[in-house]
Amino acid sequence: xxxxxxxxxxxxxxxxxxxxxxxxxxxxxxxxxxxxxxxxxxxxxxxxxxxxxxxxxxxxxxxxxxxxxxxxxxxxxxxxxxxxxxxxxxxxxxxxxxxxxxxxxxxxxxxxxxxxxxxxxxxxxxxxxxxxxxxxxxxxxxxxxxxxxxxxxxxxxxxxxxxxxxxxxxxxxxxxxxxxxxxxxxxxxxxxxxxxxxxxxxxxxxxxxxxxxxxxxxxxxxxxxxxxxxxxxxxxxxxxxxxxxxxxxxxxxxxxxxxxxxxxxxxxxxxxxx
Length: 274
What we know:
The protein is an alpha/beta fold. It folds into two domains: 2-151, 3-Layer(aba) Sandwich (Alpha/beta knot), CATH 3.40.1280; 184-273, tRNA(m1g37)methyltransferase, domain 2 (Trp Operon Repressor, Chain A). Helix content is 27%, strand content 19%. It contains seven helices and twelve strands. The protein has helices at residues 13-17, 20-27, 64-75, 95-102, 139-151, 199-217, 229-238; strands spanning 2-7, 32-37, 50-51, 61-62, 82-92, 106-110, 116-117, 127-130, 184-185, 188-189, 246-250, 269-273. Helix 4 links the parallel strand 5 (82-92) and strand 6. Helix 4 (95-102) packs across helix 5. The chain is elongated and about 70 Å long. The two termini are 44 Å apart. Residues 243-274 have low confidence and may be disordered.
């Protein structure tokens, strides 16, 4: 997979792309990454990439000319990239979107800065993505999140054979609680089933924990999950909340605190009809 970025601060990527899984993906030849400097497509001695907005107002707007010139040069070599802009006006970024992006042969992220990007540049966009209802200093930061989420989906990037299959959102649910040594710490015990060696019982416990945690903390996610009859029966009998109709308000926000099977403590939960 080829991933490229176009921004005014390409050095921001060095730490993220040179560490952890992003570095490993490149060393394995799974990922090819390059950060382009938008200033390389400017033609004045100050290498100007922004200007005052038409109509007045605070801040500076990124110019469309260098973006178009850069795109023409970058996209003109090799397979045509799927071009992604990061903007609060974009579609919400989800795990499903990360999966879709991971199947692309080549991605080009165009990153804004300052007050925003000249609207005409969005004519180049195949996708416009938003991380959420907040504003970041630059598109570089947002693109790093999207790149990481997509690259970890690529076969061979994660060490485990199942890769990201057991992680939160992979099947539409939040991930079950995780534990490691020691089995007892400051009076807090690992659930006995995880020490039993019974793989079927462990799998059953993990599924139920994912269901319960999702029902309590993110009941909205259950609307799009293909639940089995056993899943529905468990949710109905567990008292987690009346999924599809309940809105759960945890008083303690730590996910473990909301689980009735977790020995780390319990939150007082108030389930209200939505």
